[in-house]
Specification:
Elements (H helix, E strand, L loop, with lengths): L1 H24 L8 H11 L4 H4 L4 E4 L5 E10 L28 E6 L7 H12 L3 H29 L4 H4 L1 H4 L2 H7 L4 H20 L9 H17 L3 H13 L4 H7 L3 H23 L17 H10 L1 H9 L11 H21 L2 H24 L1 H4 L5 H8 L1 H13 L3 H32 L24 H19 L34 H4 L20
Antiparallel strand pairs: 1-2, 2-3
Helix pairs in contact: 1-5, 1-8, 1-21, 1-22, 2-4, 4-5, 5-9, 5-10, 8-9, 9-10, 9-11, 9-19, 9-20, 10-11, 10-13, 11-17, 14-17, 15-19, 16-20, 16-21, 17-19, 21-22
């Protein structure tokens, strides 16, 4: 337990530093939709029911185009959209007024219909201090929530990985895009972190035999992440449904009956069901799915054309999952995306090749939810919304693929040495991309990013705009954070967490695919007939009668 807390604190500190660097780097409304979310957060933080349940209304967006949203009574200076440099990568942020206060008024926001849960957490500093200080505190709160979820995911996967590769796969799903969003005010960041935590808890909980003592923390993490997925955004219930279906089917009724003996399972099941009901009521009552029809003739896509555009846009969606900062106007050079896609995508492909048909079924369900469903919605609504799908929206669900792949590969293909090599390869090649995206974004905000910018242009200490806390601060925080992350992941698997089996003892580690003959309690996968390498005991055997 002591080692688990230590590993959690180390992982939390590492992720919090990486995310926190963005909190000090970006101008107000530099991250996507930040003005909309800060207005909503400040309104919710008034704790006025009329603001929390603001009446849906047609409101203007940053460019005065009508859309669905609501009005919030907040300082009027918060409506400071960065339109002077948004979508204009060659223009610095020096033209923008930044976050400021002013008299309380009715301020429109397209996020006015969003569930208030996230905004309760980040809204108070924005309500009390509508300035740079309040903005940074709100961003840091959002970063801390994301870091806590990822640290919990890390400890869970480290505790139940065979060789630690599944824990190391967090490096592939905690992308620079997540870090950028976590360093701003945007519930999409917590949604992505919750999706990662859901799979980190669900994989060892639902794909391996029950342990009513050692797996109690997994129940809690699965419950927390489920509630967050269901409530943060209107797409969350779909992500939850597909993720749960992928892990729970085929159903192991004996395992479920044993888990049901835990009071903790019963309480969290009730909590998740309640969250689902409240989320559905919010979506219906606040009309979160309602759209404002565009002017006639604005979009005129034929169905076949819309399908072709969606399919042909998948490299753009991959870029959006890996890292596109600002108003989607800060793109890295192509090799950075290619390296990330090859390493993480290669892991997913190998997992599909060496997994069994049950694993491929899980892949299929996740792909249906993360690819086919957004495609159907985008194609059918193309003439209403245009093409608005972005890769970051799909990440809460698609993040499960690399984690499932790593879980499979360390049982069927890699031995301990090979798993460590893969983990260190990800550490060496993926972590620097975080720093590169931060530098690219800082240069873009501070001095603009012309299309013909040469290598010498990428100096994050120059420009006519700098964060009030200075440009050195975020760079130092990011470098220290990445070194910290590297130190945490370089020694995966941590010695104190190698292959616990629920009985408190770990067998001698054999290459994946071989039975652990030294320990008769751990039959091979072929002998058990399941898609797990552990069958530590028959459900119900030696289980504590009063487990909680």
């Amino acid at each position: 337990m002591r080692n688990g807390r230590r590993s959690w604190l180390l992982a939390f500190s590492a992720f919090f530093l990486v995310f926190g660097a963005w909190c000090f780097a970006a101008p107000f409304d530099g991250p996507a939709d930040e003005v909309q979310h800060t207005i909503r957060a400040a309104g919710v933080a008034s704790f006025d029911p009329g603001q929390i349940f603001a009446a849906p209304a047609v409101v203007p967006d940053a460019f005065e185009k009508p859309g669905m949203g609501a009005y919030q009574r907040v300082p009027e200076g918060m409506q400071a959209h960065a339109v002077c440099f948004g979508f204009k990568p060659q223009v610095s942020a020096a033209c923008a007024a930044g976050l400021r206060g002013g008299p309380i008024g009715e301020v429109p926001t397209s996020a006015g219909r969003y569930n208030p849960l996230y905004y309760f957490a980040v809204g108070v500093p924005l309500r009390l201090l509508p300035n740079w200080g309040g903005l940074v505190v709100a961003r840091l709160i959002s970063s801390a929530i994301c870091a806590a979820l990822l640290a919990s995911a890390f400890v869970s996967l480290l505790r139940w990985s065979r060789y630690g590769l599944t824990a190391a796969a967090l490096l592939g799903v905690a992308t620079p895009m997540l870090a950028h969003l976590a360093g701003g005010v945007n519930p999409n960041s917590v949604e992505i972190a919750a999706g990662i935590a859901f799979f980190a808890a669900g994989i060892p909980l639902l794909l391996e035999p029950p342990d009513l003592v050692a797996k109690r923390p997994l129940v809690t993490l699965l419950g927390i992440s489920s509630v967050l997925l269901l409530t943060l955004r209107s797409a969350g219930p779909a992500w939850f449904a597909f993720a749960f279906f992928a892990l729970a089917v085929p159903v192991r009724w004996g395992w479920l009956r044993e888990y049901w003996r835990l009071l903790r399972v019963k309480l969290w099941t009730a909590g998740v069901v309640l969250a689902a009901v409240l989320s559905a009521a919010w979506i219906v009552g606040m009309k979160t799915g309602e759209l404002v029809p565009p002017p006639p003739g604005l979009y005129e896509f034929k169905t076949g054309e819309a399908i072709a555009i969606y399919i042909n846009s998948w490299w753009i969606y991959l870029e959006g999952m890996i890292g596109v900062a600002g108003w989607f106007d800060v793109l890295l050079w192509s090799p950075f995306y290619l390296v990330w896609a090859l390493i993480v995508g290669g892991l997913v492909v190998l997992g599909g090749m060496f997994g069994d048909w049950t694993m491929r079924w899980r892949y299929l369900v996740i792909l249906l939810g993360g690819v086919a469903l957004p495609g159907f919605l985008q194609v059918t609504q193309a003439n209403m919304t245009g093409f608005i799908i972005n890769g970051r929206y799909m990440l809460p669900l698609l993040a499960g693929l690399p984690l499932l792949a790593a879980w499979t590969l360390e049982r069927r293909l890699f031995d301990a040495a090979q798993a460590r090599t893969v983990a260190r390869t990800m550490t060496i090649f993926l972590l620097p991309v975080h720093l590169v995206l931060l530098v690219w974004a800082m240069v873009r905000w501070q001095r603009g990013l012309p299309t013909n910018a040469g290598v010498g242009w990428f100096n994050p200490l120059k420009g006519d705009w700098h964060p009030p806390t200075g440009s050195v601060t975020p760079l130092l925080i990011m470098v220290v954070g990445l070194l910290f992350v590297a130190a945490v992941f370089w020694r995966v698997p941590h010695d104190e967490f190698v292959t616990p089996l629920g009985r408190g003892e770990a067998p001698a580690l054999e290459p994946a695919g071989k039975s652990v003959t030294e320990n008769p309690d751990v039959p091979s996968q072929r002998e058990t007939g399941t898609d797990t390498w552990r069958e530590s005991r028959t459900p119900g055997e030696d289980s504590p009668k009063k487990a909680r």
